[in-house]
Design brief:
The chain is mainly β and about 170 residues long. It has helices at about 85-90, 95-100, 125-135; strands spanning about 15-20, 30-35, 45-50, 60-70, 70-80, 120-125, 140-150, 155-165. This is MD-2-related lipid-recognition domain-containing protein.
Length: about 170
């Protein structure tokens, strides 16, 4: 190899699992929550939560990042936001805005309250997440979990945990 050549190695992100749990089936039901591998290069995440008591006018979300060492340990972020206020002014919280950009384009969670419809993330491709996590704001290699707790009217109604590996 010529000493003047540089090799640039870009990290790669892979979804490894997703778990969606309704904690209050009278309020919300998880219709589907899965990862799909269409081929070696096109893999995506989809989920749909049916809201049974619409409209929903008060939502809080607790989101936390976890990194696997010897089991999953808290890593970097654990915060709770008022989702209705945040969606009115996304730039008010740069960390929440970054996390929201990871799925906003593929979701119907792109407006402020009330929510008069079910919540959907449709075919979020790993290629999009890979670019956000490796190029926009680089994250060190490892196994991670992003866990979110969804509160409506101050009651924890659902959890979503997305697992990924960064190589």
């Amino acid at each position: 190899m010529d000493s003047g050549m540089r090799v640039i190695v870009r990290p790669k992100v892979e979804f490894t699992n997703i778990r969606c749990t309704s904690l209050d089936p009278e309020f919300a039901i998880v219709e589907h929550c899965y990862l799909k591998s269409v081929n070696r290069t096109y893999k995506y995440l989809s989920l749909k939560v049916n809201l049974l008591k619409k409209p929903v006018t008060r939502i809080k979300v607790n989101g936390a990042t976890w990194k696997r060492y010897n089991g999953y340990k808290p890593s970097l972020y654990n915060m709770t936001i008022d989702a209705c206020k945040f969606l009115k002014n996304p730039k008010s919280n740069p960390v929440a805005d970054y996390i929201h950009t990871l799925f906003r384009t593929y979701s119907n969670m792109n407006h402020s309250c009330p929510f008069n419809h079910d919540v959907v993330v449709d075919k979020l491709p790993i290629s999009f997440v890979n670019n956000q996590v490796t190029a926009v704001l680089p994250v060190p290699p490892g196994d991670y979990m992003f866990q979110s707790h969804w509160y409506a009217y101050d009651i924890n109604r659902a959890t979503v945990s997305v697992y990924m590996t960064i190589y």
